[in-house]
Specification:
Layout (H helix, E strand, L loop, with lengths): L38 H7 L25 E9 L13 E6 L8 E10 L3 H17 L8 H17 L9 E10 L2 E7 L3 E8 L2 E6 L9 H9 L2 E7 L5 E9 L5 E3 L5 E2 L1 H4 L8 E6 L5 E7 L1 H4 L4 H9 L4 H19 L6 E8 L10
Antiparallel strand pairs: 1-14, 2-3, 3-4, 4-5, 4-11, 5-12, 6-7, 6-13, 8-9, 9-10, 13-14
């Protein structure tokens, strides 16, 4: 049964949801949360089948490691989630793979997009169709990658606004890794995530390449408040906070977005939600950095960065690694929730990596 959601709680630290406590369960991980949810609206929310940083250094390695590109092998796997009473649910996640990007072997681009809302699958599909091309055609991508990628994100969002897709309460997150030589520019808008797995003293160590942009982050919350928005968690029938902090209009209990950056989401954009990416740089080292993992939050909700790296490292082939990671994420959703989010993972193995044990 889908319970009715009460008014948002006053901003406090949210309690982690769980089963077996005898209290009515309210879904914790909807990306968009309205004031009340019916079976029909829950189904639709899950996809019913119906000019800055100019001074950043751009010097990158052009040695043997980077020659011909640093990507050795890559694979992606995406699995539709599960919502009770919605047998026609569609997968709103998308991924994009460009091992040779912008016509150059030394450049690559990989991205994962997590759509949400009634038309979330349309939004994520629109972005994988248009965003990579817009980035590749940017005149200043080589000299000013931060500024050019930011412009491309904003331009793609403007193009989306004119596409005819209703983005009032629909949108998508995006995590994009643009690789030029040995430097990764991780461009993040929302709560999808990218990590790099490194080898230290024979052990796999996971390092975050992006930061989840959620209302819990002070800098993100401040932007919402400055734009006349409100940040609060939902609450259960007993008045206890449930789930993550969410973005609301100041005097209305909509849209209840669980992240502070995304494409689309016009209603949330009116109170400070933006598609403008946070771009972080990382310089790859041959033999040290082994592989990248990009994932929608269906991966990261119950799996830590370190666990994800270790799961991938234990498998002997790329396809087996992606399958193992997605299946483990699915199993943890089944254990923790009555719903399962769409789950998507992209794994990029790097030249000089000892993984996977069996390569193409």
């Amino acid at each position: 049964r889908i319970r009715t959601m009460q008014q948002p709680a006053k901003a406090k630290s949210p309690k982690k949801g769980g089963k077996g406590n005898g209290k009515p369960q309210v879904r914790r991980r909807l990306s968009v949360m309205p004031g009340s949810i019916s079976v029909e609206s829950e189904a639709k929310l899950d996809g019913l089948a119906i000019g800055e940083d100019e001074a950043k250094s751009t010097e990158v390695s052009t040695g043997a490691f980077a020659k011909g590109g640093v990507v050795k092998e890559f694979t992606s796997l995406s699995r539709v989630g599960y919502v009770p009473f919605n047998n026609r649910k569609v997968n709103q996640d998308r991924y994009t793979e460009h091992p040779s990007f912008a016509g150059e072997k030394t450049k690559s681009l990989f991205g994962v997009f997590d759509g949400h809302g009634v038309h979330g699958h349309d939004v994520s599909q629109f972005l994988i169709t248009h965003l990579p091309t817009m980035i590749a055609k940017g005149k200043n991508l080589e000299k000013h990658p931060h500024a050019q990628i930011t412009r491309s994100f904003l331009a793609a969002n403007a193009k989306l606004d004119k596409s005819g897709i209703d983005t009032t309460c629909s949108g998508t997150t995006a995590v994009v890794c643009y690789i030029n030589g040995t430097r990764i520019y991780t461009c993040n808008s929302g709560d999808s995530r990218a990590i790099v797995a490194t080898l230290k003293d024979g052990k796999i160590i996971a390092k975050a390449l992006s930061i989840d942009q959620k209302p819990e982050l002070e800098s993100e919350r401040e932007r919402i408040l400055e734009n006349n928005g409100r940040v609060q968690a939902c609450q259960d029938l007993d008045g206890n906070p449930v789930g993550p902090m969410r973005v609301w209009l100041k005097h209305q209990d909509i849209p209840g977005l669980a992240m502070t950056r995304s494409f689309g989401d016009k209603l949330a954009a009116s109170v400070g939600v933006t598609c403008k990416p946070e771009i972080l740089e990382y310089d790859l080292k041959e033999g040290v950095d082994q592989f990248l993992v990009l994932g929608s939050d269906g991966i990261w909700e119950f799996i830590s960065n370190q666990e994800a790296a270790e799961i991938v490292a234990t498998e002997s082939t790329a396809k087996a690694a992606a399958k193992a990671l997605v299946e483990e994420a699915t199993a943890r959703w089944k254990k923790e929730e009555e719903v399962i989010d769409d789950i998507t993972a992209t794994i990029v193995y790097l030249k000089g990596s000892k993984y996977p044990a069996t390569s193409k």
